[in-house]
Amino acid sequence: MKLSILDQSAAAHGRGQDETIRQTLALAQQAEAWGYHRFWVSEHHSHPSIVGTAPEVLMAAIAARTQRIRLGSAGVMLPHYAALKVAEQFRVLDALAPRRIDLGVGRAPGSDGRTAQLLNPDRNASERFPQQVMELQAWVNGQNLPPGHPGHKVYAYPQSDTAPDIWMLGSSDYGAQLAAHLGLPYAFAYFITDGQGADEALQIYRETFRPSAGLQKPNAALCVWALAADTDEEALRLFESRARWKMDRNLGRIGALLPPEDAARDYSPAEQFALERLREGALIGSAATLGRKLRQLAARLEVDELVLITWTHDPAAQSRSYELMAQEFALTPST
User: Fold this and answer.
1) Strand 220-225 with 227-229, pairing
2) Distance of CA 268 to the CA centre of its chain
3) Tell me, what's the pLDDT at 32?
4) For residue 263, is it within any domain?
5) Which of 38, 98, 204, 226 is 20 to 30 Å apart from 57, CA to CA?
6) Contact between residue 100 and residue 71 where contact means Cβ atoms under 8 Å apart
7) Domain of 73?
8) Per the domain annotation, does 167 fall within a domain?
9) CB 308 within 8 A of CB 293
């Protein structure tokens, strides 16, 4: 099974946000050395917890520091932008790292409604998403748009004999249906829904998939939040930072990750019940424990690639988690 990483540049209490971005670069280099298949970065705006706002910039910096690992966006929130500009950015990235670039796109704003409107004042931008994706496909692959289209005989440069792979990202049936219709690979955001809707979306994707020039059969990946440590007990301790964040988020409080030792607070009885369920269902544990959970999940949903997202307050704990999973799944660097 392929293992990949999605790093969201999660803010940590007491650490500068600029340091968080640099930590993402360092993690990408480690991921390549451990043998991970892809390293993806995300796009969020005006988000106190996730400070990665410009995946295309991060990807360029990572491309300059790596040689083999695939790099991608998970994703570019396409309704914020002109498809031509996105195509140009990723054609430049492909020139810097040929055959290593994934262009993951999504329809969600990655922000609140007010921020989304500041990024693009067109309130109906998301309704054009399917058309944008098709335009993006043409420009990324060097194809001419049909006569009568405003983009006819307009091209995204630089051109070459390689092109980024476009991925559809989603957490609902909508993305699955569009990915299947356009013959694109599909990544389901399991970590957003805590698994709800995953079975249905993946089934729709596989059953309605239409082969395309770039992809002859369905290709689905699952993006999951996961944390490994040397023992089950240590993984549970580290998880307290994430658990506190999720419980606070339910109350509309969004901020940086707290250290595990500072994560406890007084919870209401209803919160205590929700917290216990959260701990019980979390993909955490020692390498053996988490490895078993991940294999069972991948087998149940019939995917052969998992993209792991790990938040910890301490970057060393995050690195150790990914290192343990690389060992558990016997990853080897590609040549």
Assistant:
1) unpaired
2) 32
3) 98
4) no
5) 226
6) yes
7) 2-232+284-328
8) yes
9) no
**Sorting pLDDT into bands at 50, 70 and 90, what band is 335?**
low
What's the rounded mean pLDDT across residues 59-81? 97
Residue 264 lies in a domain: no
Average pLDDT over residues 6-10: 97
Q: Is the pLDDT of residue 261 over 60?
A: yes
Q: Residues with Cβ < 8 Å from 6, sequence gap 6 or more? A: 40, 41, 42, 74, 223, 307, 308, 309
179 belongs to a structural domain? yes
Q: For the domain that residue 145 is a member of, what is the CATH number?
A: 3.20.20.30
Q: Under a CB-based contact definition with an 8 Å cutoff, are residues 13 and 256 in contact?
A: yes
The answer to whether residues 274 and 30 touch, using CB atoms and an 8 Å cutoff, is no
Query: What does DSSP say about strands 165-170 and 70-77: parallel, antiparallel, or unpaired?
Result: unpaired
Give 128-186 pLDDT, tens digit per residue: 999 999 999 999 999 999 999 999 999 999 999 999 999 999 999 999 999 999 999 99
How high is the mean pLDDT of the chain?
Answer: 96
Q: Is the pLDDT score of 123 beyond 90?
A: no
Scan for tokens 């369905």, then name that residue: 218
Indicate the number of domains in the chain.
1
Instruction: Name the token pair of 311.
Output: 């938040």
